[in-house]
Amino acid sequence: MSRAPSTILQRLRRARLAQQVLLTLLVAGVRILMAFPARWVLRLGDAFGTVLALLNGRARRAAYANLRAVFGPDFPRSECKRIVQSAWRSLARSALLLAYLQPVTPERYRRWVDVPEDFEQTPHLQRLFKEGGVIVSGHVGNWELLLALRILFPHLPPTVFLAEAVPHELINDMLARLRSHGDLQMALRRGGARAVARVVSDGGIAALLVDRNVRRRQGGIWVPFLGLEARTTPLAAWAALRYDKPIHPMFCLPGSDGRYRIVTHEDVTLGVEAFPEEQRPFEVMRRINAVLEEYVLEDPKLWQWRLKRFKSRPTAERGRYPAYSEHDPD
Questions:
Q1: Which residues have a Cβ under 8 Å from the Cβ of 65 and sit 6 or more positions away?
Q2: Weakest mean pLDDT among 154-168, 207-221, 309-323
Q3: Crossing angle of helices 57-71/77-100, nearest 10°?
Q4: Strand, helix or coil at 86?
Q5: Are 127 and 246 in contact (CB under 8 A)?
């Protein structure tokens, strides 16, 4: 039997009220946070991240499973704990700094992030700045501050980034406002392919995180990552190859003093024309994953191991894949 319309409306009103209360608390928290000295924000982020690591058992189990799938079943639990707690602290710092720097200005941004003075003259980025293209990154370091790099260069081509939606409309709106650095535009992943195609074809820049599991029915292809075949979105490769644009991996990495630095890489589409046309998207994404791997293996604390990156696996037998993985056949 269907529910009465009045009951449905009541539930919708209660859900909306709960979102409004949560949003009010978040706004109040941001205002309080902005009054703190910078060093307190970092300490608060570390404390908050430690608490989240302890309380979120589901994410912790996924992280431990990922670490043992990559580094072997005998990878020490103590090392798992150290890496996972550090990753959570990094995540908490990223979130708090995004709020703390509001409104983000070039002066505030440069206090926290080292950007070369001649960044716009970086030789391998000249085509991106002139013609547009794709920037790819992952859940490595501080991707929120990477997006905010846009505030320093408002005259560059229009930029759109894809983001995961949270199940609260008002919070999505708040996040969009926090991330609206200059004319930077946010597009949600549902329908995001159209937004990426539109901005890249028009000579703009699309920014994507490419280290989430994307099932076959959503277009994911198998690409090696950390020693396992991982379902990976080919969207970045598809857009760049279709419109003849460059793709540049880019990261915002933490330093020992609490500050960050921007790191860029050359166009990963260079020389891809030597491969058969049908193999080019795979080759481009293979190169991107290889760049991500380099940072993750050098310092595992940089990556968010809580992500169920290997939720899809190509074989019915689990093998080295984490227990949460599911067979996703071609």
A1: 322, 323, 324
A2: 154-168
A3: 120
A4: helix
A5: yes
Report the amino acid identity of residue 40.
Answer: W
- pLDDT tens digit sequence for 32-61: 766 777 778 888 889 989 998 999 999 999
Residues 6+ apart with CB under 8 A from 80: 63, 64, 67, 68
For the stretch 208-251, pLDDT in tens is 999 999 999 999 999 999 999 999 999 999 999 999 999 999 99
Rounded Cα gap, residues 293 and 20, in angstroms: 40
User: Strand 133-137 vs strand 228-232: parallel, antiparallel, or unpaired?
Assistant: unpaired
By DSSP bridging, strand 159-163 and strand 221-225 are: unpaired
pLDDT value at position 1? 46
Q: What is the largest CA-CA distance in the chain?
A: 66
| Extents of the domains making up the chain | 38-327
The strand pair at 221-225 and 228-232 is best described as antiparallel
User: What is 96-128 written as a DSSP string?
Assistant: HHHHHTPSP-HHHHHHHEE--TTGGG-GGGHHH
CB-CB contact of 196 with 160 (8 Å):
yes
Contact assessment for residue 244 and residue 172, using Cβ atoms and an 8 Å cutoff: no
Nearest partner of 232 among 123, 295, 298, 309, judged by Cα: 309
What radius of gyration do the chain's Cα atoms show?
21
Would the pTM count as exceeding 0.85?
Answer: yes
H helix count then E strand count, the chain: 11, 11
Structure tokens at 26: 């978040």
